[in-house]
Design brief:
This protein has 203 residues and is α+β, with helices and mostly antiparallel strands. It is 67% helix and 18% strand. A hairpin with a 2-residue loop joins strand 1 and strand 2. The longest helix is centred in the N-terminal third of the chain and has 102 residues. The C terminus is likely disordered.
Length: 203
């Protein structure tokens, strides 16, 4: 029986299989490397896109903060203007009253009384001056109490001032402002009507 040597064929077959296996392994590595590269590129692209979005959001937030600050500044300016307008309106509204207060105050000062200082805090008016005598001070207080625009005259101090005269008195007093009400005004008008009617009848 003839003998056939199969070793060379088996050796060639094994070598072929080994080369195929190595080729498959190399292909898998190449494919894995390509996939990993693509994944890394995709992740880096996503990170760059997110960073760009973050920068855009930061710019928008900064712009919004500037706008909010500008709005707050405008609101402050508006509030200041409204406060000034209110002060001006209050001054315009009280201007006639101030004139009436000063007019009535001047009318209440009797002869022989010299006012050196007048200050007001709230509804309290502080007065300092010199009078020829204590009676002049008392008359001044009665005039203020009988006024429609002042009430509660209170003498806080009275000191002899011989340098101003034998009976001269240096005084300090306070009085409260009291604007007349509409009822007081109407009552005064009613009280003046009969006298006017009598005058007309007498004529």
């Amino acid at each position: 029986m003839a003998k056939i040597n199969l070793l060379p064929w088996r050796e060639a077959y094994r070598k072929e299989k080994k080369e195929q296996f190595l080729a498959v392994i190399g292909g898998v590595f190449l494919l894995s490397g390509l996939i990993a590269y693509l994944w890394i590129v995709s992740v880096e692209s996503s990170i760059e896109n997110q960073q760009a979005r973050n920068q855009m959001l930061e710019v928008e937030i900064s712009n919004l903060e500037k706008q909010v600050k500008e709005i707050a500044d405008l609101k402050k300016v508006r509030d200041d203007l409204l406060a000034r307008i209110k002060i001006i309106q209050d001054l315009q509204g009280t201007r006639p009253l101030i004139v009436r207060y000063f007019d009535d105050f001047a009318r209440s000062i009797p002869e022989g009384v010299f006012v050196s200082m007048v200050s007001r805090q709230g509804t309290t008016v502080s007065i300092e001056g010199v009078a020829e005598s204590y009676n002049r001070v008392a008359t001044f207080m009665r005039n203020l109490d009988s006024s429609d625009w002042f009430a509660g005259a209170n003498l806080t101090s009275v000191i002899a001032a011989p340098g101003e005269g034998e009976q001269a008195q240096s005084f300090r007093m306070t009085v409260s402002t009291s604007a007349p009400t509409e009822t007081d005004t109407s009552q005064k008008n009613e009280n003046t009507k009969p006298s006017s009617a009598k005058k007309a009848g007498g004529k």
